[in-house]
Amino acid sequence: MAPGAQNGAVKTELGRRYHFAASHRLHNPALSEEENCRLYGKCNNPYGHGHNYILEVLVSGQVDSATGMIANLADLDGFVEREVLEPFDHKSLNEDVEVFRGTVPTTENLCIEIFRRLKPFPKAKLERVRVQETSNNSFEYAGDNPEGFER
Amino acid sequence: MVLLTRKIEFAASHLYNNPDFSPEENRRIFGKCNNPHGHGHNYTLEVTVAGEPDPVTGMVLDLKDLKEILEREVMQRMDHRFLNYEVPELAGQIPTCENIARVIWQLLDPQIKQGKLHRVRLYETPDLFADCYRNGTEGAKA
After folding, report:
1. What residues of chain B, 14 to 33, have a C-beta less than 8 Å from chain A?
2. Is the N or C terminus of chain A more exposed, i.e. has fewer CB atoms within 10 Å?
3. Fold for domain A13-141?
4. ipTM beyond cut 0.90
5. pLDDT of A106-149, one tens digit each?
């Protein structure tokens, strides 16, 4: 097979979207009830509430000339399934995800935790993650990657 | 600097098969995409150009010009085509989202004379896309 027209002048990233549903409650036990209520509003409701989250994962790397791929989607899907979807989907983030027992599960913190879990993906370089909490708000995290947000 | 993005949609078919692989390997690596008769997608292409608005026209570039470039370079080449057999720029390559996006970047980059091509994003489905940027010069600084 003819090698793909690799061109060092172009950087290519692969983006993949995943969906999961989870509940959370924004509450900081170090703050008073009034402060929590003032700070987090409805999100402080003691019984929690849920969202349909959309996770966008962007990876970069050489496009393999034999497959035309940066990473085989089956590998990426399997990794994200194991590291994020299985532990987060249809779960209570506060109760079921260890890190959020001591950290408020805002979507900012969720982004950071998902990035940490996906960073070791062995087949490509994780560039950044974007988490959409509702159609009106989304959050992105690129770790310490200086290029991550310049795209 | 201002970023301007124009979106177009095209429909095309493709299949993934590397003749260097055995039929079994092709099926294992490419899965359903290896179906010998191909399959199709509605692709969505977002093209982003970076530049300073012209002080007279207020435009980074004239959208009419960009529309014509996209029509000529992308729509006429790829819309309602079988990408493996009808797009010479993809000959000998697996027409993955990554490769199609890069070919589109290479087609568009020399055509954009006002402003600078900043990003090409090609959606194969709403949940799968590839982005191309200029390597080395961080896009937003270009």
Report:
1. 16, 18-21, 29-31
2. N
3. Tetrahydropterin Synthase; Chain A (3.30.479)
4. no
5. 999 999 999 999 999 999 999 999 999 999 999 999 998 766 66
